[in-house]
Write a structure and sequence with these properties.
- With 342 residues, the protein is α/β, with parallel strands linked by helices.
- 35% of the residues lie in helices and 15% in strands.
- The chain has helices at 16-19, 59-68, 96-107, 156-173, 187-197, 218-224, 244-255, 270-279, 290-301, 307-321, 331-340, and strands spanning 29-36, 43-44, 52-54, 73-79, 111-116, 177-180, 206-211, 260-264, 284-288, 325-328.
- Strands 1, 2, 3, 4, 5, 6, 7, 8, 9 and 10 form a ten-stranded mixed beta sheet that branches.
- Helix 3 packs parallel to helix 4 and helix 4 packs across helix 5.
- The longest helix is centred in the middle third of the chain and has 18 residues, at 156-173.
- It starts with 15 loop residues before the first helix and ends with a helix.
- The chain binds zinc ion.
- Zinc ion binds next to loops.
Length: 342
């Protein structure tokens, strides 16, 4: 048998590493951290094994644990002491993320990225303040024999003002990067304007540019206490059916000055990650979300999957699809595995 092309030649030990196309490093990973102003002890998150909500007093200790694994960046989410219709604790000077950011940046070398959204801070759990009136034709009576349900949605432009305040308050507290996640039209421009005006022109924005209305966020909502009290987020997050729309959506954020473009979730949307990689020269981030984490843990618990192997393979796939940065609940475990394997 005379075969000219034998791809197996390059799969032998010794040469595999030389021809490997994708590498994964601890420095590619960002670890999400949940800071909870309502507790004074660490609370395990049941649906996300190994993760906890930590009190502000533990925020530095928590970040130091992450840094020890080789991961250099964290994304902070806050659970506030109180919620209201506007989500006003989100931009409070003594808010949970602001307080934790001040401590973490003062006491560690971590690169601190803050989530800028309102869903954890509003009593209704939506990502902004709500429109005053039910939508629909003026005077239309929804109560009887009406085919379409009344819908209340987030007031986009009013929410932009809140996002700007949140971003500035995070930057004042020392945040290294701001990550707006609410999928409001114009959010990047509003935040950029606010940051520049207040002297934070050097603070980059990582936009959740293509964030889908996904069922894979379930466990996160336990963690961040951010489930909407009614309805869902389909009026602002993207329809999972749409890929071309993602390019349009992401291009708007790029035009408004987003420095890093994110796709969320990651694994079910690798085609979008790959499209973005081809279309834009910005760094691309992907958020390997709580459901992607929880399902591997659940299968591993049953003995059906090798957790360490599938976690590594998941992140490698996200990188191969074109992501430069990966937000993941596996950050510490995978980083430790990478360091041990060197
Ligand atoms: Zn939100």
């Amino acid at each position: 048998m005379n075969l000219t092309h034998r791809p197996r030649r390059l799969r032998q030990d010794g040469v595999r590493g030389l021809v490997s196309e994708t590498s994964l490093e601890p420095a590619d990973l960002i670890a999400p951290v949940f800071i909870d102003a309502t507790t004074d002890e660490r609370i395990p998150i049941e649906s996300m094994p190994g993760h906890e909500r930590v009190p502000i007093d533990e925020s530095v200790a928590r970040v130091e644990e992450i840094l020890e694994t080789g991961v250099e960046a964290v994304m902070l989410f806050g659970i506030p002491i109180a919620k209201d219709a506007q989500g006003s604790r989100a931009w409070a000077d003594d808010g949970v993320v602001q307080e934790a950011t001040r401590r973490i940046t003062a006491e560690t070398d971590a690169y601190v990225i803050t989530d800028a959204c309102l869903c954890e801070y509003t009593d209704h759990g939506h990502c902004g303040s709500l429109e005053d009136e039910l939508r629909g034709e003026a005077g239309h009576d929804h109560s009887e024999g009406c085919a379409h349900e009344p819908t209340m949605t987030v007031d986009n432009d009013e929410t932009l003002e809140s996002l700007e305040r949140i971003a500035v308050s995070h930057a004042e507290a020392g945040a290294d990067m701001i990550a707006p996640s609410g999928m409001m039209d114009g959010m990047v421009a509003a935040i950029r304007e606010g940051l520049d005006r207040e002297g934070f022109g050097h603070v980059p924005i990582m936009s959740y540019a293509a964030k889908y209305e996904s069922a894979f966020y379930g466990p996160f909502r336990d963690a961040a206490d951010g489930a909407p009290a009614f309805g869902n987020r389909r009026h602002y997050q993207m329809d999972p059916a749409n890929a071309r729309e993602a390019m349009r959506e992401v291009r708007l954020d790029a035009e408004q000055g987003a420095d890093v473009l994110m796709v969320k979730p990651a694994l079910p949307y690798l085609d979008i990650v790959s499209d973005l990689r081809r279309e834009f020269d910005h760094p691309i981030a992907a958020y390997n979300v709580s459901g992607e984490y929880a399902m591997l843990h659940a299968a591993a618990e049953k003995g059906w999957l090798d957790l360490e192997a599938v976690a590594h393979e998941s992140l490698l796939s996200i990188k191969r699809a074109g992501a430069d940065l990966i937000l993941t609940y596996f950050a510490e475990d995978v980083a430790q595995g990478l360091t041990a394997g060197q």
